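ok so i was messing around last nite and threw this chain in just to see what happens. nothing serious, just curious
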Amino acid sequence: MAAASAGTPAPDAGSGNAARVLSGSGERGGTPIVRLSGVGKRFDSGTLALAALDLEVGRHEFVSLLGPSGCGKSTALRIIAGLSTPSTGAVEWLDPAHAESRTDIGFVFQEPTLMPWATVFDNVRLPLRLQSGRRNGERRSDAQVRDDVRAALAMVGLEGFERAYPRELSGGMKMRVSIARALVTRPRLLLMDEPFAALDEITRFKLNNDLLELWRREAWTVVFVTHSVYESVYLSSRIMVMAARPGRVVAEHRIDAPYPRDEDFRTSARYNEYCRIVSHSLAAAMDASERQ
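result:
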């Protein structure tokens, strides 16, 4: 099934093909930095996780991959990160800085995956230790490394928790540590694999808001995996809806809502309409998967 498109949201936009909504997000969706062309992934078990996946991500975009379990969202993210190789197709880096080095990519996993025996400070410092104290290829002194770790913790609101251990933290705080660990190398591309799925709604809303503020302030590019229609509409400049068996993109939505976004947007008729349109696309994607 090809990715569907239609016009600006209207009362009947949920009927027929999924909607593609033109973006009004200003500088977002700029120069492309990475392109996946016809990417497929078949595991050794024979499972075809992805087939003919086409995806282009522009500088400073916030792109969400939305779909049911088993549609290859996480696999696509790992391929972008270089943690997995495609069986077919190609990953093309269009930004020379990314093409030369992948050290400016940060990855936030579904679970915090913190070292329980290490302090918050040491957990966040880990990527710099693995890079021998380097940040984006630049050798850092011990004092600079300490400053980098403290700066990353300050970004996520964890000043003063450097000496705490994971067992002493709430679920939301553990995820903040995980995000800080991804940020300590100052990545320009941040890949996030359902980082807030296990959190309560209040904590999730708070971290959504904090993430958007960091994204806007630091001018990152973000590719975000989620099962949640509501989360994807709130966060994204663009949503790619995926179907499973095999995983592929079946609809694309541009969210024409300005940033910053806040609770007024979350409770607005405009937000609800976007959620209705994207929900319709997701339901169609799940139907397509069941017919395979």
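not much to say yet. The CA atoms of residues 179 and 197 lie 14 Å apart.
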